[in-house]
Hints:
The chain is of the alpha/beta class.
Amino acid sequence: MVVGKIKTVIFGARGMLGSDLCGVFPDAVRLNHDDLDIIERTQVIEFLEQNEPDIVINAAGYTDVDGCEDNQELAFEINGQAPGYIAEGCSHIGARLVHYSSDYIFDGSKTGYTESDLPNPINVYGQSKLMGEKNIIENMDNYQIIRTSWLFGIHGRNFVETIIGLSDTMETVRVVNDQFGKPTYTGDLARKTRDIMGLPPGVYHITNEGVCSWYEFAKAIIDNIEPCTSEEFIRKANRPKYSVLLNTKTSPLRHWKDAIVEYLEIKKSGEYLT
């Protein structure tokens, strides 16, 4: 365990987003589940009180949307209760908490959502993420909740890798063309996280620019693809039809198509493995 004063802590440092955050915050203390279990309130608060960081970044989460339907208790512990424990500890020591939430807290009945729109999640994952937001807000004032969507990144399993894998093994890949959102590159999100830390506390929407369906997203990656409807591709968890996050508080990120080009080039070069 770390001893002494530290500036920044990253929970979930080995995850897809956490790995990119470590690159942006190279001096941060990096914690994973093996180091500290965030669903254990006492562990979380004792660690924060002993080490007194200035900034705590929570990139830990249970992100398997369908898995959350089967493991509801775990989803609410990790995504809902644990952020409240972290917020409680941050409040005790006066640290700022940066936490990541999701477009899936919305029901998809609108064509776009601002930071002030009322949430109405339609699956367990969204419900658990909304609980996390509420528990943070109830426990502290100095927070930045970053809602984002459709993450893909170099250091983790994601939609892009799944589509490429399917393309290599199937003659034709079918992808839904009636769910719309904004793909977001974790490298861009991590860099933007650093940039907004000087802004006031509150809720922020941060995604790459450009709205697309899952089919349109996949079509930018592979050729052997055809569209289908959500009714033709049944999943355990309901998905919002239109979960587009509108960023009204910060400058926009680049278009997701530009980000996917960089992602594929890095993956091809293998630079991320060095």
